[in-house]
Structure formats: structure tokens, C-alpha cells
Amino acid sequence: MSALRELYQEVILDHNRKPRNFRTLPAANRRAEGNNPLCGDRIALDLDVAEGVIRDVGFQGTGCAISRAAASLMTASIRGKTEAEAEKLFDGFRRMLTGDGSEAGIGPGLGVFAGVREFPARIKCATLPWHTLHAALAGKPEPVSTE
Ligand code: ZN
Fold this sequence. Notes:
It is a single chain. The chain is an alpha+beta fold. 44% of the residues lie in helices and 20% in strands. Strands 3-2-1-4 form a 4-stranded mixed sheet, covered by helices on one side. The termini are far apart. Zinc ion binds next to helix 2.
């Protein structure tokens, strides 16, 4: 298990160092900001949504390795998905971290965050990008805060 854990940490560190989709989207038609004051994580998420499908996604922000890696892996998992599918992935992610721990409904690669479950203070770091996604899809104008 410890080797597996190290592998998971490698993935998180890699996404922190080289976050995927770390850019603004000039064509974005949905946008939201999220804030996790407990840790200092901030994220701005851009989506290009057409006919209910997330055609493109980008994020900017500062924060800890968990939040950056979570945002990076989230963007990779939601591109090309419908809004409903993306919300389902959020449900699955939340269930893994704060529900019964099942990894059944999560997106590919997102199991690397299963260990975060054991660190309640970091759960908000991992779910911040998803809360921000939810706000962007819902068209909420005010920034999301985990507090
Ligand atoms: Zn954090």
C-alpha cells in the first residue's frame, strides 16, 4: 500500500508542477472563482460550453499542491463531457472523500485523491475546483468559498 501511495503522490506532485489546462480561455462563456480561505487556495475556472457539452476548460490560480493537482486532473476529466456528466463526476468525487469512500463514480485518474480522505483539512483543497465548476455551470456570479 505504501508503494501505491507514493505513486499517487508522484501523480499529484507532477500535476502540481505541470498543471494541465493552466490557462485562461478567451472563448469562455462560463466562469467562476473559488476560494478556500483555510488553506489560501484560489482558483478561477473558465469553461466553453456549447449545447450542454464542455468543449474546453482552463484554470488559473494559486494554492497548495493538492488544490492545483485537483484542478488539473478535474479539467482533464471534464473536457468533452456534458454538464450532467460533469456534475455526476463531482458527486462521485465527493462521495469518495466525504461519503462512503466508494471510488465507483469518479473520473479516470481521480483515485489519486482517495488518501486525502484521511486528512479532513485537505478535503476542501481537493474539492474546491469541483465546487467552482459547479458554480460556473450554475452561472453563479459570486465567488465560491469553502467556508
Ligand atoms: Zn490547499
